[in-house]
Fold each of these.
Amino acid sequence: MWDYVLERRELIAFQAFQHVSLVVQCVLLGTVIALALAVLVYRSPAATALANGVSAVGLTIPAFALLGILLAPFGFGITPAVIAVTFYAALPVLRNAVVGLAGVDRSLVESARGIGMSRSAVLFRVELPLAWPVVLAGIRISTQMVMGIAAIAAYVLGPGLGGLIFSGLSRLGGANALNSTLVGTIAIVLLALVLDLLLVLAGRLTTPRGIRV
Amino acid sequence: MTLSTETPQRGAPESATRRADTASDGADRAGWRALATQPLLVLAGLLAFAVWRVNATLTETEARQLGWAALWRSTREHLLLTVTAAVIVLALAVPLGIALTRAPLRRMSPLVIGVANTGQAAPAIGLFVLLATWLGFGFGTTVVALVLYAALPVLRNTMVGLQGVDPRLVEAGRGMGMSAAAVLFRVELPLAVPVVLSGVRTALVLLVGTATLATFINGGGLGVLINTGITLSLDSLLVSGAVLVALLALAVDWLGRVVEHVARPKGL
Amino acid sequence: MSETTTPETPASDAAVPQRRVSGVAIRLDGVTKHYPGQDRPAVDDVDLEIPAGETVMFVGPSGCGKTTLLKMLNRLIEPSGGRIHLDGEDVTDQDPDKLRRRIGYVIQAGGLFPHMTVATNIGLVPRMLGWDKPRTATRVDELLDLVGLDPAVYRDRYPRELSGGQQQRVGVARALAADPPVLLMDEPFGAVDPVTRLRLQDELLRIQEELGKTIVFVTHDFDEAVKLGDRIVVFDIGARVVQYDTPDAILASPAEEYVADFVGAGATLKQLTLTRVGDVELEQVTTAAVGTDAAAAVAAARAAGQDFVVVLDERGRPISWPTLAELGRATTVPATVDPRLPVVGVRSTLNDALDTMLAASQGGVVVTGRREALAGVLKVEAVMAAIRRSRAEVAG
């Protein structure tokens, strides 16, 4: 296997970069969308219930099915991959952001309003920082999950390490089929662990010291 | 003063009882109402699909693949994969979870959880292909892959559920002379049921979704429709397959929620 | 009425209990617990005799080994050395599950199983002992009645539908279910509010009066130990027995400076906690049953020179104490329950009575005896007189 990796290190490195780049960009995009949605809904119980329902139902939809559905309008390529991966990345963050924002002590919000902070100042200075650890936990779940989903996205000609797995599948029994699959799989596991570690680190750096556990 | 804080029963026991009852009734009704929307969504989806299927003009290949009998066969295959894997997962992961929370093996549990978590980061498709190179194509390999993939949530939730039982209750049970087995079956497991079941539901949904990948290693199921649709560029096939799998996942998730709702021990 | 208003004579000399005894003696011989990896044993060679039918309180700082010692009595913790005898029988090597069915065990918040009803919780041990369902059900109702909860109301409730104090009562009922001779209580009242704790302590005293079990009770509250205990064991680190005596003796002459420190300053005033409400002469008051003629009650009170009437419910329990002016406005005696009515039991201490008065901002308390029936009224003046008397005694 080492020979295989050494021989193709540039291709593998490129695919790994593509994979991570797809995941990171989609998680960022998904997080922004999810946070915006959470901020919109968290003050209304009905909207909160709806958002929770959407994230629960959304997470039951199989990734392969969603990719298939997206193929019909968008065709092969990067678009369906990005949409699908962003969709799955946003859901856990949405769920956790709603929970996190709802969990902020009401008396803190009141006292912030009491000292004259505007609504948006309360949101950005008090509520989001306090909800941040919960949101971050959601981002970690998202990242782990979409690392695997991105591998399936390779089937619809999206970029990334999934290509190695599918090329192994198509040449099963042939030379290097096993190597190709193994390298793709292991690389995804390793990268997922590295990303998770980075997120933990980011959590340490971005969580206000007073609420760190 | 003393009376009011300590013995509310003397004031008006009936009203107190009624209040408690209506409160739990209310929660119950809200729970059932929340459960009612999901099957309606599934039924509406099925209906829409049926209406489209009856009115659509299809090519010969499409019509053959989307015949009611063929659809039913694919769905049955898909369910068979899911149920077989689920039964094996339950039979393995729950006892393993129990064993890993008992005194002799307890020290190993962080290790097992760590390994399992890492394993979870492995892409399902990679697992399928790797197992296929080792065990060959077909139903059996698919089930093995599904079991490996879905065992973690059940294992983890079994352990978390059991670890979440208040140790003082275990001690109270032992203290009144219940044997270790009696405490496990009468106290720990009933209290862990909600957490375990939610793990089982997660696993079931995961299984329905992951079983779509069975098509890549000739395991059958609804994934075949999607895959054929993709390779032959037949949108009707791939959308049908995708919609049916999504509806199946929603239905299975709903069934799981119903079971959770019914099996949740009273008094919690 | 005359029967219930007579103050009960408490067992003044605790070492010679005059009550019925259903408990058995416990004897510890050199009991030791040594945890691997620790230099000092958690419990070091303890010898202790606990007489049948007495309440023995284990007190000491946290980490002194008192809870460890308690848990070795029902072998939740296996001793590493020494013997434990129950009623003269060496139980050190007996099957722990069988042993524990003969020993009631009460922990903080009752340790009730939240997924079982009150009745199932209480009936667990009897069922394990092979009792049939009807017998268990009868026993459950009997026990609920004993701990002051109406079986019809509470039998089928789940623990979360009960208040903290009620849960604790069910915990005691569950421990008593199979009528074990010994009751172990591990800081049972630690998690309830002070007023409820006081009430539960009174209940325990009353139940113990009725049953005469051997009770071993761990607490870190010395006042609680003085109030509940026939004897107190004061422990130091390693469960070293520093002093083992009756509360009066420990208060009067602490064995070491350590005990004196632990007992705390104002030990003479703590003597107050030794005086039971029942030891003081209670004021007899005019009573009126719910629904009887209000004017007649007012007249009777006037004739006795009193300015209030205590209203009793159908079971003879006090529910309110309206002034004559208030009562005069009604035609029949109202059934309104006064939630602020200050009540203590006859086995409460003067300290408790004073606390209750202060909490209710009233100049007196209603005192209840068996099954919460009226025993009389205690005025603040009577408490003050008792304090003066006890000061004079200590000084003299």
Amino acid sequence: MADQQSGETGVLLNESAGRLFGSFDEKDIRAVEQGQWPQAAWAKVQDAGFPLALVSEVAGGFGIPSAEAISLLRIAGYHVAPVPLAETMLANRLLSETGFDVAEGPATVVVAESGAFALAKHGDSWRVTGRADGVSWARHVDTIVLLTEHAGTSFVVRLKRGVASIAPAMSFANLPADDIAVDTEIAADDVRAAPSNWTPRSLKAAFAALRVSEMAGALARVMEITVGYANERVQFGKPIGKQQAIQQQLAVLAGQVAAAGGAADVASAAFDSLDIVAIAAAKVRAGEAASIAAPIAHQVHGAIGFTEEHRLHFFTRRLWGWRDECGSERYWSKVVGQEAIAASADGLWPFVVSVGSGQGA
Amino acid sequence: MSFFTFPNPPVMPEAEKLRGEVRAFLAEELKTIPPHVRAASWSGFDADFSRKMGQRSWIGMTWPKQYGGHERTSLERYVVLEEMLAVGAPVAAHWIADRQSGPLLLRFGTEEQRQAVLPKIAAGELFCCIGMSEPDSGSDLAAVRTRAEPVEGGFRVNGTKLWTTFAHRAHYMLLFCRTSGSPSDRHGGTSQLLVDLKTPGITIRPIADLTGAKHFNEVAFEDVFVPSSALIGEMGNGWHQVTSELAYERSGPERFLSSFVLFAELVRVLRDHPSEQATVAVGRLASHFVVLRQLSRGVAWLLQNGQNPALEAAVVKDLGALVEQEIPDIVRSLVEIEPGSERTAELARTLHYTVLAAPSFSLRGGTREILRGIIARGLGLR
């Protein structure tokens, strides 16, 4: 595929994603946070083909580089689109790389520690046993994809609707994040060996890379909303954005938005090679950006931004939740820190350069 | 939807090849210089080192060959800069000329000025200093009082510049001054002159900083005659020119790597039995550097494409100074620095230097508050 052509396809996709996600309103977001399935919204996302953005053209994708596909999630994050797009994109990628057909409807991926699910061969079928908490959107999806290790190999297991028992729960961001349990026999056709670079940890990293993009998008919007408010809100006879104290705070916010954007670029570039350390660094930085930026946005908004009625919390609650999902700053800092210390003093700078190179670790 | 643009530059094979050459050179050149000396980073002045860099074609890398440059890309230049800074190579002698004086002359200078100065800068033999700040004009650069009065055949300059880094070792100053009007005219009536520091009437007095080092100066001009050929660009266009010079000044990796030598020494001491707390802290810092580098390379790419990265550079410099300044306290929180401990002795010396140097990181090249004001303006708030 020609680079330029794919670039143009990417631009067109981004434009249509902006229009589509921008058409969802606060009513749609609230309905999802109250437990409803966003049937109409999802139908539009599916019609646009976005759930297949991370799979090859042969499998139904757009034939664009992964980094461009992931930028759709930045736009979804910017609009806090109330649909399981990251989840379904990742599920389809994993299914497709493992030789499954892509999912027909919404899908999700289980991020669990190694050993959370056990796999045993039973004649022609497999017995799958295990449980995981906080599985995004599990109750609403047609396909739950999980990855587990068996006899030294990673296997991808496809759970069709109804196979797992699901206890509904909500995430920090008030999105479905259900507890699932499986103890059942499934057909051999639903279990396949995964390519060797897929492990429970690399799957967690892959999901984290997508979350980082959503965070970067949400942060960009938080900045836009907050700057807009500072220019409108008049106190002491002038917009509060004319006050240096507010300007300095907004400049700090802007710096964090830039950092999250840079982190998203690092993570997106590392997605194909599943460069865990690069994605880890990106998730660490994006999480810190959220921690610094969200309080500034609230401070500048004053009391109105603390109300349920104001839209700011749709963004800040997700940012606070996404910091912890797919590995927090602490979790991924340890991964980066171990590598950095192992690189030793004289190897520290070459290590930093290699992590940012997008060449894989 | 976006207030600023940080492009995602490609990794270039030729730049990575160059990186290997630079690392080999530095390993040889710096092998006897201890970390606490290298911690001075781009404040370390060594004219011989600069000449060697010039011989290797690592100064003026992006400039046209006709002026002694090497017509390489901004990303290749970036590789040389970041490799130098990461190990604390003593690059101060040529740094300012390579970073901003040369590019300014390329853009606004006369053909005569370019011919006279640029090839020597690129050779690592001619050093420049920045004539911006004054006793009454720090962050408020438009308040400059130094005046160049047009006279027969040139200008007569009177006034005082302050905090002029390495003026006492430099050959030329790029002087920002007033050529008409008064400070109340603000941006109007200012110009830039290329001043030979050997000119009679110039007195350079070094000022020790709190580390004890003498790198900045007070430079007094008393009835100094400067020929008309010294005018850079247009009379009265000084403000526009100097702000573009500041974009170069703020755009590089020196704005986040000033404490990197200390970070590396921390890792040296932690090596054997890092606590979980230490591993997390090191991982967090490394993550910051990965992302700062991503943003900073984006700024280099904007320069490569002829765009003005003033806003993006301010963002990176502000973020970078925060990280540079927090490293000393992170070191202190992770390692007990005890007198007489051989294990931590070099770390302690490096820490000592960096603690003292750190206040300057958010002052030089534009204070934190000025940068944040620039960012706020970029957000449409002023």
